[in-house]
């Protein structure tokens, strides 16, 4: 959002003419007086966050994360929740009214969050009237017997007043009486009795200038959604209130153009206007206040002091006589309360109102912050953005020094309001630092206004005395000429007077024109400043737009890259999935293979066991046979005639080594059995014949005897046995010496 306080450009505040300030006193400054009033805390179930330390100091306790933080704030005076309306008026209202009746301007405004008691403090109700009704009573108590006749003072509709002749005033009074008689006959008399019932305690200001007469004027406006409405505008015929514009008068004071300003001659008349205006004020129900003000309202009291003069014998004020008047103004302002939408839960019109209220209060705060900064830091003079809101624009003069400024900070001490109270206190602190130029009352000279009736030129000539010349009588002629000369000299002096007046008037007019010119200059400077600001904002906006476009293009690029990366990631993911599938398949196949192998191994083992058993049987059988053969050989040897030496040699002959070596058994199924490789010795044995060749080698042929027959028999039996077996056995001699010892028995036997 466009925040005025964030302006980088700081044009100088246009110089304010100090014509309204009396010389010598305008260097004196007074700080804004800030008071605080606490609303009674009704909810006994919830705690309060504020403790009053003294009549000028309070403490706000803020507990966060278990740490208690106390912040102290000082005010001009603090009103505890049990303070009465009278106490508040005596402290704040009375001095303000005293100043007002002594010709000084003042602004008194109530500030605080919604429902904190601002309206109660300023207006109150018929049982507990607030500052406004008490002020009215005090004014009329004080000026009793010192009032001007009604209509003697009249507004000029340009924020100033003019003085009428008693005659004119009487005529207008009679006219009004007639009108009111007509109205009362029709039975339309106003019945605003609300404040008339309350007890007038007779408070009055005693140090008034008794050589003056007083007139009281009232206007009542409200600023709703940043529009200005006149609460005293006549809307009896169903007219809706019109938005008014703010204007600057010749003294650079802001005023509401065309505002209805009514002269009142009694407190009752003033109460009538107060109640009439209040009835038109925008009030609505919200979650935090059943009668919440949705606008800022300003009740204006203007006092005109008229210097007493010695009237002519007939009691009629001479026309064109200069009379001094002093005008003072008091704006009693009830600001709408700041509110947080999350607490009020406002929607629709209420929400719009709330945002407008908060905006204008924000502008007020910004203006005061900048004002304080300008005052504290003489080097930097920033433009105070009064024009950003109607509220600050209207009060511009007060902050720039046309009168005292006082603020009542209304506070609800309930713990729920802690955060908002801290904001309010911060604002109060800023406001207290601001110093306002002190001004003294200034009297303005006003000539008594006469209703000018245009005279015809003929009548004007008729005003000149008619002189008759009797030409026959020279003496008479001389007297007549003297009379003419006297009349001419009178006329001449009158013309001179008129010339002087014309000169003065034209001087005034010229002054006015210079003022208007200066005002225009001032306005055009402001306009130029705003134009520069606007241009800067436009440039800023353009730069931001370019940046946004660049960022958008970059964002698109990043999105495109993201898309590409996503596609790559997807492809990689697909490949990984495929690989994972293959790995899973392989694992499954391997598991199947392992299972098959385990089954095959088991089967093979069983077969081997079986065949080993068979082979063991066969071997044991063949061993038995061999043992039998050996026994037979031994017997045969015993029966044959061998020499002892031959017997010994035969006995010492080592048995076939195959009987002592560890046999290695290779089993192949009978059908498939194809001996592929044999050792050389086996082949040799095969070539030579089997058992026969073995015997031949062992027992040389020279020694062949009976026993050969036995051996043949054995070999035959053996062959028969071998035939019976379906399995081939190969006994392999694993002895390492088999090649080194050629004497040994062949290592392999089939
Ligand atoms: N000092 C007080 N003593 C008793 N009652 C009070 C006091 N101050 C306020 N109240 C009551 O509290 C209620 C809210 O007060 P009020 O309407 O004045 O608040 P507000 O600040 O003007 O609110 P908003 O900003 O919403 O208009 C009213 O009913 C009023 O009568």
Automatic annotation (TrEMBL):
<dbReference type="GO" id="GO:0005524">
    <property type="term" value="F:ATP binding"/>
</dbReference>
<dbReference type="GO" id="GO:0005874">
    <property type="term" value="C:microtubule"/>
</dbReference>
<dbReference type="GO" id="GO:0016887">
    <property type="term" value="F:ATP hydrolysis activity"/>
</dbReference>
<dbReference type="Pfam" id="PF00225">
    <property type="entry name" value="Kinesin"/>
</dbReference>
<protein>
    <recommendedName>
        <fullName>Kinesin motor domain-containing protein</fullName>
    </recommendedName>
</protein>
<dbReference type="GO" id="GO:0003777">
    <property type="term" value="F:microtubule motor activity"/>
</dbReference>
<comment type="similarity">
    <text>Belongs to the TRAFAC class myosin-kinesin ATPase superfamily. Kinesin family.</text>
</comment>
<feature type="coiled-coil region">
    <location>
        <begin position="527"/>
        <end position="554"/>
    </location>
</feature>
<dbReference type="GO" id="GO:0008017">
    <property type="term" value="F:microtubule binding"/>
</dbReference>
<feature type="binding site">
    <location>
        <begin position="112"/>
        <end position="119"/>
    </location>
    <ligand>
        <name>ATP</name>
    </ligand>
</feature>
<keyword id="KW-0067">ATP-binding</keyword>
<dbReference type="GO" id="GO:0051256">
    <property type="term" value="P:mitotic spindle midzone assembly"/>
</dbReference>
<keyword id="KW-0175">Coiled coil</keyword>
<dbReference type="InterPro" id="IPR027640">
    <property type="entry name" value="Kinesin-like_fam"/>
</dbReference>
<dbReference type="GO" id="GO:0007018">
    <property type="term" value="P:microtubule-based movement"/>
</dbReference>
<dbReference type="InterPro" id="IPR027417">
    <property type="entry name" value="P-loop_NTPase"/>
</dbReference>
<keyword id="KW-0963">Cytoplasm</keyword>
<dbReference type="InterPro" id="IPR001752">
    <property type="entry name" value="Kinesin_motor_dom"/>
</dbReference>
<keyword id="KW-0505">Motor protein</keyword>
<dbReference type="GO" id="GO:0005871">
    <property type="term" value="C:kinesin complex"/>
</dbReference>
<feature type="domain" description="Kinesin motor">
    <location>
        <begin position="31"/>
        <end position="434"/>
    </location>
</feature>
<dbReference type="GO" id="GO:0005634">
    <property type="term" value="C:nucleus"/>
</dbReference>
<dbReference type="InterPro" id="IPR036961">
    <property type="entry name" value="Kinesin_motor_dom_sf"/>
</dbReference>
<keyword id="KW-0206">Cytoskeleton</keyword>
<keyword id="KW-0547">Nucleotide-binding</keyword>
